[in-house]
Amino acid sequence: MAAGKEVARRGDGAVASTGAADGVRASIQQALSAYELAVATRLRAEREAAHAHGEHTRALTERERQATSDRQRDQQALHSVAAADASRIAVLAELAAQTADAAVRLLESSSLAHVRGVGDALTVQTHTATDEQAAAAFTAAATAAVDLHAALLKLATAHRESGDWERARGILIPLRSATAGPLHDAATELLYGTYLEQAAAANAAAGWEQARQLIDSALELVPGGLTTDPVLAAEFLLATGQGVDAALAADRRDDAERLIGVARGRLGADHPQVRRWTRRPVLGWTGGQAACLQEFGGHSQPVKHAAFTADGEQLVSVDGSQLKRWRMPGTSGGGLLTTIAAPGASQLTGAARLAVTADGDLLSTDNGTVVSRIAGAAAGSVTSFASTRDGSAMAWAVREKDPSRYVTLGGSDGFTVVGSIGFGSASSADAPIATLFASGAIPRHVPLDAIRVGEARQGSHNMGRRAGLRLVDVVRMSSLTGEHGVVNVNPKALWLRLALSSAADFVAWLDPVGQVVITDIATRIVRHTFQSALSYGPDDTIAISPRDQLVVVTNARPHSDNAWRSTVTAWEVATGRQVCSWEVGGVAGDIAISPDERLMGALNTAGVIGLYDIRAQSALRMVGYHGALESPCIAFSPDGSRLVTSGDRTIKVWGVP
Length: 657
Hints:
Blueprint: H1 2-18, H2 22-63, H3 68-115, H4 132-161, H5 165-178, H6 182-204, H7 208-221, H8 225-228, H9 230-249, H10 253-267, H11 272-278, E1 285-286, E2 289-290, E3 292-297, E4 305-308, E5 314-318, E6 322-327, E7 335-341, E8 345-348, E9 354-357, E10 361-364, E11 370-373, E12 382-387, E13 393-399, E14 405-409, E15 415-419, H12 431-436, E16 451-456, E17 465-469, E18 472-479, E19 482-493, E20 497-500, E21 506-511, E22 515-520, E23 526-531, E24 542-544, E25 550-558, E26 564-572, E27 578-585, E28 588-593, E29 599-604, E30 608-613, E31 618-625, E32 633-636, E33 642-646, E34 650-655
Antiparallel strand pairs: 1-2, 3-34, 4-5, 5-6, 6-7, 8-9, 9-10, 10-11, 12-13, 13-18, 14-15, 14-17, 16-17, 18-19, 20-21, 21-22, 22-23, 24-25, 25-26, 26-27, 28-29, 29-30, 30-31, 32-33, 33-34
Helix pairs in contact: 1-3, 2-3, 3-4, 4-5, 4-6, 5-6, 6-7, 6-9, 7-9, 9-10
C-alpha cells in the first residue's frame, strides 16, 4: 500500500508538470474513498465480532445460573445465534477486504497511467496510449475500476440482506451515480429494494410517515412503480390508510384529505380503495350515511335561518319572532344558551353578528336591540339579503315603494300590460314578466307581497282583474360603517336572490329570466353573465364559495313525471367556466359550500341532505334526512367538521365526511 501511495505522489507530480486531465485526480480520489470505506467497514466488522463474542460469553455465564434441564436447550439456541452473527460478520469483513484490494489496484494502475502522461485511465481507450506500458496501465485501471464497483455492489448487498438499509444506501447512491450500464441497473435495483423493504418494516411498526417517505424515494427511481409493482402499491395503500386513520382520529380532516388527494392523483379516482376512502365512515357517519350528532328543539315556529359564530362554538337561529343561541356539541353535549325576542328577524349576517328583518332593521344577536337600519328600506321592502362570511359587509335588494307595472290577470289574453308608474311605457323588457302570467293566474312562485290585485271587472266576459306588481328597484351594498354602493337592476324583476363575496368586492344574483349576474362593486361593471336556466324562482338559491372562487346556484323544475328536481351548477368566478353540475331530487331550498371548497351541501324541502365532492366530481348518496321543511336551511361550521340543517322547528347537527 505504501508503494501505491508513493506511486500516487509521483503521479501527482507528473500530472502537475505535464498538465494531465483533472479527471485523473477524481478517479484517484474515488479509489481512496472506496479504500477508506472498505477499511472502515472491516474495522467495524471486527468490532462487531468482538462485541458479539463478549455478549455471547456474558449470555453463557448468565445461562449457567439457570436450571440444568433448560441449560442444554438455551446453549444450543445461543450457539445458533452466535454462529449466524459470526457468519454475517465474516462475510462483511471478507467483502470489505476485497473492496480494499480493488481500490489499491485502481490506485496503482491509475497512478502509473498518469505518470505516463496520457490522461484519465477510466475514459481513454488503450489504443490512444503512447507506448505498450501505458496501454497496459489503462487496461489494468479499467479492470480495477470494474472490480471495485463490483466489490462495492457485493458489500451493499450484504448490508441489505442483514437489514442495514442505511449503510447499503450509503454505498449504492454514489455507486449508482458513478456507473452506467449493467452496474448502474444493478445498483438501482438494489437501492429500490432497500426503500421497499424498509417501508414494509416501517408500516409493520405503524410508522406510516417514514414509510411514505421511503415509497416516494422508490418512486423517484421507478416512477411507474405503483402500476408495475404490486408490492410497492400494497405498501403505499397501507401507509396511506394508516395516515388517513391517524388524521381522522386527531380530527385533522385537511391532512386526511391531502393524503387521499395524493392517492387519487397517483392511483386514479376510480381506484376501489380511493373510492372507499372518499365514502368511508368518519365522525358522525356510519355506512355512508350521516348520524345526527344532536337535535335542538324549542322554536315556536319554523326556523328561517341559522348561522355559526366565528369560532364555531355557538349557533344562532331566528324564526321571525325569536332569536336563539345554542352551544354546539363538543366534548360535552350542546344546548340552549339564551332566547331573545326578535320580531320579524328572518336572516342572519355572517358569523351571526346581526339579525335582519324584512323592514330593514339590524338587531344585535346578543340582546335583540336595534343597532342600525338598512338605508333606503321601507316596511317589507327588503326582498333578499346577503353578507360576507365575517358579517362586516352586506348586500340587499329593495322593492320600489309604488307598483311599477299594472297588469290584467285572466281572460284569453292571460297577461296584458295596461299601464305603468315610474318605469316608462310597456316594452319588450316586459316579456319575462309577461311569460310568468301566460296562464292567466298568479304563478305559484311569485311572492304574494309583490302583487296588489284589484277587484274583478264586472260585466266583462273574461272577468279580468287589475294588478300592480312591486318590482325590485336596486341592489345596495354597505359595510357596518355605512353605505358604499348601489347597483341598478335592469330589467327590473319581481325577486332577486343575492350572494356577496367574502372580500365584499363583487355581488352575484339570480333574476327571473334565468341569468346569473356577477357585478364588480367598485366599478359597477358586470364581470360575467351565465344563462343557465329558462327562469329562476323564489325557491332557487345562490351562494359564493368561502374563498370567492366559485358561484353556485340551484334551479328547481318539474319533470315529465310531475316530480320536481333541482340542478346545482357551479362556475369559476375568475373565468366563467362551468365547473360541475349536479342533480338533486326535489326542490333544493338551500345550498352551502364547505370552508375548504371541497363539498357542496344541498337541502330540499323534503328534508333530504345531499353532498357533492367538488374535487372528485361525484355526488355522495343521500347522507341524511331531516324531515319535511318549510324553508330549508343548511350551513357548514367554520372548520368544516359539522353540518347543521333546519327549516322546521328543530335544528339538527351532523358530522361531515
